[in-house]
Amino acid sequence: MSIKLFELLLQASIYTVTISVVSILIGFAIAIVISAMLLSRQRLFVLPAQIFISFFRGAPLLVQLLLIYNLLPVIGINVPSIVAAVVGLSLCTAAYQAENLRGGFASVPAGLVESAEMVGMTPIQIFRRIRAPIALRLTFQALVNEAILILKASSLVSVVGIVELTRMAQDLAGSTFLPLEIFASAGLIYLVINWIVALAGGLIERSLPGVPR
């Protein structure tokens, strides 16, 4: 396979990484809200959060992407394909991240929170200094795994017209009749990207307070 073809795959991988990173960050912000709703004692908040998680964990991501891509114009919202792709990936990963975070927050020892309340810490201080750091430490590896899954799942956004790494590999394989070399190269690029994510995740995890180095 020529250098030119490999460069085209690398260029397409930029879309893969960009869409994935943006979706993971947006999904994390949504997940914090959803996990807080799940831990609420008000049924008014818990039920919508449960419905959100059930739908986006239960329906295939491919269906979600097609639904969002075709539904938005129907209700008068015309957005570029890349926006529809980011929305679909963000909502899907938010559902999984919310479940991870809920488990982390639920695992925070109640005694620590009660002790903080006894010394006069405000709810915001308790969240920032106790609940959030412990929950993040407990769920960090699961969040890294979810990031890797989203990176791989981003190959599905080709259904809404995004020429990311997998779509570019398909196009090149069809036009050059070199499917083995093309898809092997694409797989290698995915492997390197996910290896970097796992390595960075491990380094960040070891830098978190309370984690042995």
Low-confidence stretches: none
What's the end-to-end separation, in Å? Answer: 43 Å
Number of β-strand runs: 0
The largest pleated sheet is described as:
none
Portion in helices? over 70%
Q: Could you please describe the fold and organization of this structure?
A:
The chain is mainly α and 213 residues long. 82% of the residues lie in helices and 0% in strands. The protein is flat. The protein starts with a helix and ends in a 6-residue tail after the last helix. The relative contact order is 0.15. The mean pLDDT is 90.
Topology:
Elements (H helix, E strand, L loop, with lengths): L2 H37 L3 H16 L2 H14 L6 H26 L3 H9 L4 H31 L11 H12 L2 H29 L6
Helix pairs in contact: 1-2, 1-4, 1-7, 1-8, 2-4, 3-4, 4-6, 5-6, 6-8, 7-8
Short structural description:
This protein is mainly α and 213 residues long.
